[in-house]
DNA sequence: TAATATATTGATTGGCCATTCAATATATTA
DNA sequence: TAATATATTGAATGGCCAATCAATATATTA
């Protein structure tokens, strides 16, 4: 049990270090040596706990993706109405804890970038996006006629995405507030009967 | 005159090759040697015509940015009304010639990526974005009360951006049509008196 | 304790890359 | 034509990186 525990700890430490370095220096600066030193380990150790650099990065990204989903779920009350669900998605997407800190925001950017070249990360990235959209659809389909669902869902998702990337990495709380407001107004304009 | 001409030609050829390679292989694959071979030249020649790789890439991106602006301007009639201007921006953003071909779409993605690390490209990227937004603002401010301009402009820009990146690199004409429709509906919802 | 597994290190390897450079070819000019 | 500038090549340079490996330390087990 103890051996497993050390292995798990080291892997977590390395994933955290990877996220920190990638966020601060970008993907090109995130070399194995730098990540290892950041985690307080020697260069060679990374390949002892991860099969390859690609595996390390992919797993780090996955943990980021999971954090995001949890943040959103935490914002909605238990057994939420469709409107509350949408509200949590809009608010959660611009929550300070995942866009407010430059590190996290930059990390999302690097996540998308890595998805361009690494097949494994590409898959994870698409999965993350698909879950996000399907979350929106689950709520919208309960609020509008079936033939309007697709366009409304895609519009909401695109609008959130657009703000998400727009100033990527340099958000003030003020910008986030603004993004929330504009996105929510869009939701209200498209879906009659929702308010504030 | 002849010497200048050759220099200009080679530089253009190299910039085209750079765009092609970056679009196909992504930034990591775009080495000097590969770009040179793509342009039918030997490896060493690139540094004869460009100070550095960074300069080559930055100028290639600039030409992409200019092409985009020209595409949009070409879509609007001479002396357009504000509504026609907006329409050209929406249609132009999803015009087949700059998102329909995988190469061009992927190139935009790589443009944004490079902006994360290269200061020169970062500047160019922000400039491109600022011009785009200011283009929208020019039209919107003639159509709605002053205190509504900012939110509407940012909403339109974000929505277009969102679609722009969403499926980046893998657009069907059908997707583009859809994006146009959803964006234009948003414009119409926000700005009374616009139609079609 | 002895034996075995795991953790950790830092040097080494082999590969890739941007850039430089000397050498050669091809124009331009006087 | 001779002299000079420009174009082009391909090999060499020096640096960086992921991954490997032998060596050492530390824990686990019998």
Care to describe what's here?
2 copies of one chain form a homodimer. The first copy, chain A, is mainly alpha-helical. The first copy, chain A, folds into 2 domains: 1-50, Arc Repressor Mutant, subunit A (Orthogonal Bundle), CATH 1.10.10; 58-190, Tetracycline Repressor, domain 2, CATH 1.10.357.10. Chain A is 80% helix and 0% strand. The first copy, chain A, has helices at 2-29, 32-38, 46-49, 53-75, 82-93, 96-100, 102-117, 119-140, 146-166, 173-190. In chain A, helix 5 packs antiparallel against helix 8. Chain A is elongated, with a radius of gyration of 19 Å. The mean pLDDT of chain A is 91. The structure holds a DNA duplex (30 and 30 nucleotides).
Condensed summary:
By secondary structure, chain A is mostly helical.
- Give the ordered list of helices and strands of chain A: HHHHHHHHHH
Whole-number count of domains of chain A:
2
CATH class bucket of the largest domain in chain A: Mainly Alpha
CATH-assigned homologous superfamily of the largest domain in chain A:
Tetracycline Repressor, domain 2
Which residue ranges of chain A are poorly predicted, with pLDDT under 50 across at least 5 consecutive positions? none
Structural shape of chain A: elongated
Note the total helix count of chain A: 10
What is the CATH topology of the largest domain in chain A? Tetracycline Repressor, domain 2
Report the CATH architecture of the largest domain in chain A: Orthogonal Bundle
Summarize the main sheet of chain A. none
Mean pLDDT score of chain A:
91
Class of secondary structure makeup of chain A: mainly alpha
Rg of chain A: 19 Å
Oligomer: homodimer
Biggest interface and residues each: A-B, 33 and 32 residues
Report how far apart the termini of chain A are. Answer: 51 Å
DSSP strand tally of chain A: 0
Please estimate the helix content of chain A. over 70%
Percent range for β-strand residues of chain A = under 5%
């Amino acid at each position: 049990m103890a051996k497993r525990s050390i292995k798990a700890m080291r892997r977590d430490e390395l994933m955290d270090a990877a996220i920190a370095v990638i966020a601060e220096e970008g993907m090109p600066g995130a070399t194995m040596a730098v990540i290892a030193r950041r985690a307080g380990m020697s260069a060679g150790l990374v390949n002892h706990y991860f099969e390859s650099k690609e595996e390390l990065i992919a797993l780090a990204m996955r943990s980021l993706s999971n954090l995001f989903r949890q943040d959103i779920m935490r914002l909605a009350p238990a057994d939420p109405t469709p409107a509350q669900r949408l509200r949590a998605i809009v608010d959660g997407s611009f929550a300070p804890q995942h866009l407010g800190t430059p590190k996290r925001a930059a990390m999302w950017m690097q996540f998308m970038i890595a998805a361009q070249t690494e097949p494994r990360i590409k898959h994870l990235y698409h999965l993350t996006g698909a879950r996000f959209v399907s979350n929106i659809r689950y709520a919208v389909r309960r609020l509008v006629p079936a033939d309007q669902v697709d366009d409304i869902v895609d519009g909401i998702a695109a609008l959130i995405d657009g703000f998400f990337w727009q100033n990527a990495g340099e958000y003030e709380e003020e910008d986030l507030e603004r993004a929330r407001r504009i996105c929510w107004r869009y939701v209200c304009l498209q879906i009659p009967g929702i308010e504030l």
